[in-house]
C-alpha cells in the first residue's frame, strides 16, 4: 500500500518533467537531422580530407613532365696518379682520368669542377597522359566513396530516427498501460475494502503495475541509447533529439505518393563501383603505356681547372681553382628495354583480372539493388495491408477490455480474465505501433534503395 502511494505520487512529477522537457526541446525533423549529419558527421569530415589528399596526389602526378636541372660544384685537393684503362664505374671511384706519367707520382694537386646538367623525358608515347588519367580517376573514386559514405550514413540516420519514433510510440503505450493498471488497482482496492474482493487481487495488480513501470524504464533507456548514437553523428545534444511524431501519420496518409520511379542508375553505391571499374580501365591503359620507349633531351655545361698543366707539370695549389676550361654538350636520346615487352604482358594480365573483378562487383551491386527494390515494394504493400486490418483488432481489444473491467467491478469476472483482456489490448496497441513502424520503415527502405530519399522528405517537410 505504502509502495503504491509512493509510486503514484512520483508518476505525475515524472510526467510533468517529461512534458516540460518536450516543451523546451521542440521536435527535430528528419530533414533537419540529415542536414546536421552531413555537416558534422566525423566520418564524412574524414572522407572529405581523403579527397583533398587525392587531389594533391593528382597535382603531383600532373607535374611529372617537369625536367631535371641539376647544379653541381666541387673543389678538391689530393693526388692524380692514374693509369689509362676502361672500367665500369661503381659510384665510389673518385676519378677516371688517364695516366700522364710513367712513374708513380704522389705530388698533391688541386682542382675544381662545376656543371649544370639538364635531362628531360620529353616524350614517352602516352605514358604521361595515362598517368594523369589514372590520377584524375583516383580523385573521382574518392569522391564517389564519399558519396557512398554519405548514403550509408543517411540510411543509418533514418533507421535510428524511425526507431526513436517507434520507441516514443511504445513509451506512450506503456504509459497508457500503467494508467490502466492503476485504474484496476484502485477498483480492486475499493472492492477489497468493502469485502467484495480478496486481498490477493491487490497483490496481483501491484505486481502488474511494477512490471509495467520496469518496462517503461527499460524503454526509456533504449530511447536514450539511440539518441546518443544520433548525437555522435549529428552533434546535437542527445536530449534535444526528439522525433517528430507526425511523420508516421503523414506517410500513412499518402500511400499512393511513393510510386516514384527508381533511380538506381545514379545510385551512390552503383556510382562508386562504376568509378572503381573505370579506374581499373584507366590503369589498364597506363600499363600499356608504361613500358613504351622514352625520348630524352640532355644538355650540360661545365667548367674545370687543375693545378697540373697540359705538360704534366704540378703548379701551385692555388692555380687549381677558378675555371680554366669550359664545355657544353646537347643531345637527344631514346631508350627502350626489349624485356619490357614481357613485363608489360604479365602486368597487363594482372590488371585485366582486377578490372574484371571490379566489373563483376558492379554487376553484383546492380543486381542487389534491383532485388532490394522489389523486396521493398512487397514489404510496403504487406505493411499497408496490416495497417488496414489492425484497427479492427485494436477496436475489438479495447471494447473487450472495457467490458471485462465493467464486469470485474460488478463482481461478474475475476482478476485473471481482466488481466488477460488488458494484455490483449496491450498486444493490439503494440501490434498497431509495430505496423506503423514497419510501414514507415518500408517507405524509407524503398526510397533508399531507389535513390529517392529527397522525394519522401519533401512529403513530410
TrEMBL record:
Checking SUPFAM superfamilies in the record gives:
Outer membrane efflux proteins (OEP)
User: By what name is this protein known?
Assistant: TolC family protein
Q: Write out the annotated subcellular location.
A: Cell outer membrane
InterPro entries per UniProt: OMP_efflux, TolC-like
Spell out the family assignment given in the record's similarity comment.
Belongs to the outer membrane factor (OMF) (TC 1.B.17) family.
User: Is tRNA processing given among the entry's keywords?
Assistant: no
Species: Mucilaginibacter robiniae
Tell me the first and last residues of the signal peptide: 1-22
Highest rank taxon of the organism = Bacteria
What are the UniProt keywords, alphabetically? Cell outer membrane, Membrane, Signal, Transmembrane, Transmembrane beta strand, Transport
Q: Name one GO molecular function term.
A: efflux transmembrane transporter activity
Q: Which GO terms describe its cellular component?
A: cell outer membrane; efflux pump complex
Q: From the UniProt record, list the coiled-coil ranges.
A: none
Amino acid at each position: 500500500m505504502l509502495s503504491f502511494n509512493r509510486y503514484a505520487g512520483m508518476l505525475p512529477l515524472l510526467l510533468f518533467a517529461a512534458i516540460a522537457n518536450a516543451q523546451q526541446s521542440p521536435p527535430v525533423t528528419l530533414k533537419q537531422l540529415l542536414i546536421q549529419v552531413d555537416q558534422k558527421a566525423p566520418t564524412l569530415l574524414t572522407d572529405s580530407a581523403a579527397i583533398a589528399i587525392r587531389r594533391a596526389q593528382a597535382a603531383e602526378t600532373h607535374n611529372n613532365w617537369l625536367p631535371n636541372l641539376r647544379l653541381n660544384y666541387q673543389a678538391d685537393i689530393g693526388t692524380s696518379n692514374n693509369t689509362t684503362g676502361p672500367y665500369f664505374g661503381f659510384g665510389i671511384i673518385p676519378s677516371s682520368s688517364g695516366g700522364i706519367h710513367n712513374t708513380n707520382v704522389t705530388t698533391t694537386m688541386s682542382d675544381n669542377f662545376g656543371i649544370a646538367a639538364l635531362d628531360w623525358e620529353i616524350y614517352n608515347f602516352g605514358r604521361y597522359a595515362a598517368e594523369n588519367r589514372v590520377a584524375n580517376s583516383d580523385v573521382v573514386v574518392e569522391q564517389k566513396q564519399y558519396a557512398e559514405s554519405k548514403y550509408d550514413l543517411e540510411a543509418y540516420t533514418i533507421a535510428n530516427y524511425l526507431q526513436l519514433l517507434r520507441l516514443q510510440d511504445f513509451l506512450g503505450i506503456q504509459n497508457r498501460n500503467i494508467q490502466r493498471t492503476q485504474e484496476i488497482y484502485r477498483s480492486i482496492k475499493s472492492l477489497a475494502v468493502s469485502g467484495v474482493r480478496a486481498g490477493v487481487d491487490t497483490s496481483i495488480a501491484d505486481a502488474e503495475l511494477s512490471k509495467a513501470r520496469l518496462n517503461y524504464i527499460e524503454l526509456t533507456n533504449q530511447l536514450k541509447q539511440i539518441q546518443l548514437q544520433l548525437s555522435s553523428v549529428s552533434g546535437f545534444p542527445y536530449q534535444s533529439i526528439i522525433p517528430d511524431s507526425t511523420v508516421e501519420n503523414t506517410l500513412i496518409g499518402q500511400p499512393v505518393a511513393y510510386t516514384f520511379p527508381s533511380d538506381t542508375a545514379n545510385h551512390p553505391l552503383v556510382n562508386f563501383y562504376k568509378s572503381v571499374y573505370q579506374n581499373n580501365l584507366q590503369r589498364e591503359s597506363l600499363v600499356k603505356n608504361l613500358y613504351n620507349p622514352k625520348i630524352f633531351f640532355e644538355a650540360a655545361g661545365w667548367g674545370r681547372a687543375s693545378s697540373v698543366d697540359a705538360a704534366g707539370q704540378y703548379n701551385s695549389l692555388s692555380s687549381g681553382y677558378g675555371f680554366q676550361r669550359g664545355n657544353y654538350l646537347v643531345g637527344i636520346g631514346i631508350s627502350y628495354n626489349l624485356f619490357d615487352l614481357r613485363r608489360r604482358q604479365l602486368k597487363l594480365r594482372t590488371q585485366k583480372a582486377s578490372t574484371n573483378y571490379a566489373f563483376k562487383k558492379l554487376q553484383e551491386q546492380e543486381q542487389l539493388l534491383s532485388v532490394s527494390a522489389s523486396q521493398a515494394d512487397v514489404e510496403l504493400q504487406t505493411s499497408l495491408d496490416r495497417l488496414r486490418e489492425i484497427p479492427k483488432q485494436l477496436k475489438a481489444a479495447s471494447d473487450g477490455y472495457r467490458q471485462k473491467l465493467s464486469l470485474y467491478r460488478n463482481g461478474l469476472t475475476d482478476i485473471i480474465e481482466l488481466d488477460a483482456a488488458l494484455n490483449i489490448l496491450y498486444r493490439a496497441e503494440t501490434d498497431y505501433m509495430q505496423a506503423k513502424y514497419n510501414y514507415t520503415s518500408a517507405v524509407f527502405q524503398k526510397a533508399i534503395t531507389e535513390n529517392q530519399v529527397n522525394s519522401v522528405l519533401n512529403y513530410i517537410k
